[in-house]
Design brief:
The complex is a heterodimer of chains A (304) and B (319). Chain A has 13 helices and no strands. Chain A is mostly helical and 304 residues long. Chain A has a domain of 162 residues: Orthogonal Bundle (MetI-like fold). Chain B has a single domain, classed as MetI-like (MetI-like fold, Orthogonal Bundle). Chain B is globular, with a radius of gyration of 23 Å. The chains are: A mainly alpha (304), B mainly alpha (319).
Chain lengths: 304, 319
């Protein structure tokens, strides 16, 4: 019941977001046609504005946009004239999506075991080494990690291609660049969660019952210790799936992160609002899924 | 033993912090780093004909005719595309990056604490309206926000500069930097608001607040004397962890060309210009490795200090 209510609540929320985003981009100084190569004559500019209905009052423009949205139309891009926003998203989303999923799997695959392992060996050298590694990868921005990987593995040793998005071989360096940071974050959260859980009373009970240490750690503790990672994975996955500018730009990957930044810089109104909405939908749906999973994993949690 | 009972919670936290060797070491590293960054180049301090090696005397803006020199005895970090000494540029950039992190965090602190405290203390309808607003902002990508905000501020500045009163170059630069601080702070206050609101909400229900109200204390006094002092610990901890993320965000903006403008430099803009120099023929690794390493070291020290503070302020930590 609670979740049905929340799903219904998404609709006004998304509407509000679309409205705010629409106002925000239109409040930006300059318009989408300011960066044309030659300064357009007043007539041409007037025609352009009229064609995209930019000469109308803002609320009327928003009404028109919303009407299109309800019919599944995100409108035309104002920068790339022959493409609709839907086209551009349809072209970029699969790329960003696959890179995001790969980076997500990588960060979970590395982060969860690392956090688990360091927490189990608390205050021993394994812990210090592993926790230091997790902290270090968080502190090295992809702007440094990416170029370093390219210089070493692509230019110096020529093991991997420098850039582009073609074969599975092209995927490895971007996935590492993107995934290592999140692996560090996941490891730290898992570490904290595990330490907090191992102090709780039900673990003492399980020990008193004489269960094996493996079963206590994996079956009882892990299930609750993973909850902080779970809450973090919603926003993290939303960021990863909708594309990340630095990595896409470094490796020349045609994803949505680049579109998000460029459209904001170019004041490509429809494109920005479309991408903001896409991000919002992904984030809100993921957060819903996260809360639902939370309920399944932790029987103490009840939502009303 | 008895002496311990007389300590305030903050004094006890400071004690626990000092006992945490990792965090204390990180604090030391951070302080040394800050001192070095502020004082470099050391040649400026000493009288001209002293025994300092030449590498310590380069100024960040002095152009030489040896571009892209690899690290050597004369230039410990090598030189950049204009032959400028990278070490002194990195120190200069680190100064700005730290400043950006501190001021940006302060801006988001003010907004976040005010917003969270008002929502949490006000409760009821106020609370839900204010927190729904935070939810809506959360669901928007910060990239778009920051770009819109910073370009709007820059456009305003350009207009002023061209206007009749005409800002001087230096003032415009300072204002641009201030705009960047505000922009960074304005997009990172959301989590702070949520945390503070949660804390305030739970404090508000405690009996001592009611007692205070019954004794005739005003709401402003209660917030100032009873609520905020109880939230300080959480705020300080979160603040130390926020500074690194703001420094990182500035480096991202510099990569977009929206951050610190040349001839000023931040660690982010140095890394960004290093990343531009990647080509298959020559590898100028020092351009990216050194600024990156200094950034990573700073962030790492800040993170460990933050972790230490969090453990120190955690009431469960006392044994």
């Amino acid at each position: 019941m609670y979740f049905i209510k929340r799903i219904l609540f998404l609709i006004p929320l998304l509407w509000l977001i679309s409205f705010l985003a629409f106002l925000l981009v239109h409040a930006m100084p300059g318009g989408p046609f300011d960066r044309e190569r030659t300064p357009a004559s007043p007539e041409i500019e007037h025609h352009l504005l009229a064609k995209y209905h930019l000469d109308e009052p803002i609320l009327k423009q928003y009404g028109r946009y919303l009407n299109g949205l309800l019919h599944g139309d995100f409108g035309p891009s104002m920068k790339y004239r022959n493409h609709s926003v839907t086209d551009i998203i349809a072209a970029g989303l699969p790329v960003s999506l696959s890179l995001g999923v790969l980076a997500f799997c990588f960060s979970m695959g590395v982060g969860l075991p690392l956090g688990f392992f360091t927490a189990v060996h608390k205050a021993r050298w394994q812990d210090y080494l592993g926790s230091l590694a997790a902290a270090v990868v968080i502190c090295v921005p992809s702007l440094v990690l990416g170029p370093m990987l390219i210089m070493l593995f692509a230019i110096k040793w020529r093991w991997f291609p420098v850039a582009l998005w073609a074969s599975p071989w092209h995927v490895i360096l971007p996935t590492l660049t993107l995934g290592l940071y999140f692996a560090g974050r996941v490891a730290r959260l898992m570490h904290e969660g595990m330490l907090a859980t191992l102090h709780s009373e039900f673990i003492t009970t399980a020990r008193a019952k004489g269960l094996s240490e493996t079963s206590i750690l994996l079956k009882h503790a892990f299930r609750l210790a993973v909850l902080p990672v779970l809450s973090y994975s919603g926003p993290m996955l939303a960021d990863l799936l909708t594309g990340t500018f630095v990595v896409e730009n470094l490796f020349q990957i045609p994803g949505l992160g680049v579109s998000m930044v460029n459209s904001s810089l170019n004041a490509d109104y429809t494109m920005v609002v479309g991408l903001v909405l896409l991000y919002a939908v992904v984030l809100l749906v993921l957060n819903l899924a996260v809360d639902f999973t939370h309920c399944l994993l932790d029987p103490r949690v009840r939502y009303e | 033993m008895n002496e311990r009972l007389h300590l305030s919670p903050n004094q006890r936290a400071w004690r626990r912090f000092r006992r945490n060797r990792g965090a204390a070491a990180a604090l030391l590293v951070l302080l040394v780093l800050i001192a070095l960054v502020l004082l470099w180049p050391l040649g400026k301090l000493a009288p001209a004909a002293t025994v300092l090696p030449k590498a310590m005397t380069h100024l960040p803006d002095s152009i030489s005719d040896t571009p892209f020199a690899p690290p050597s005895w004369e230039h410990w970090f090598g030189t950049d595309a204009h032959g400028r000494d990278l070490l002194s540029r990195v120190c200069h950039g680190a100064r700005i990056s730290l400043l950006v992190g501190l001021v940006g965090a302060a801006v988001s602190l003010v907004i976040g604490v005010l917003w969270g405290a008002v929502a949490g203390y006000g409760g009821g309808r106020w609370d839900s309206v204010m927190m729904r607003f935070v939810d809506v902002l959360y669901a928007m990508p910060t990239v778009v926000f920051v770009i819109v905000l910073v370009t709007a501020i820059n456009a305003k500045l350009e207009k002023w500069q061209a206007g009749p009163h005409g800002l001087s170059e230096r003032h415009a630069q300072l204002l641009q930097m201030a705009g960047l601080f505000v922009g960074l702070g304005a997009v990172s206050w959301l989590t702070m608001a949520r945390i503070v609101r949660g804390q305030v909400l739970s404090l508000r229900r405690r009996p001592f607040i009611d007692a205070s109200l019954v004794l005739g204390a005003s709401h402003a006094r209660i917030v100032r004397r009873h609520i905020l002092p109880n939230v300080y610990g959480v705020i300080i901890v979160y603040l130390t962890l926020m500074i690194p993320s703001i420094i990182l965000y500035e480096s991202f903006l510099s990569y977009l060309g929206l951050g610190i403008q040349p001839p000023q430099a931040s660690l982010g803009s140095l890394m960004a210009s290093g990343a531009e120099q990647i080509n298959p023929i020559r590898i100028y690794w020092w351009l990216i490795v050194f600024p990156g390493a200094v950034l990573a070291l700073t962030l790492l020290a800040l993170t460990f200090v933050g972790d230490g503070l969090r453990d120190a302020f955690d009431p469960r930590g006392e044994s």
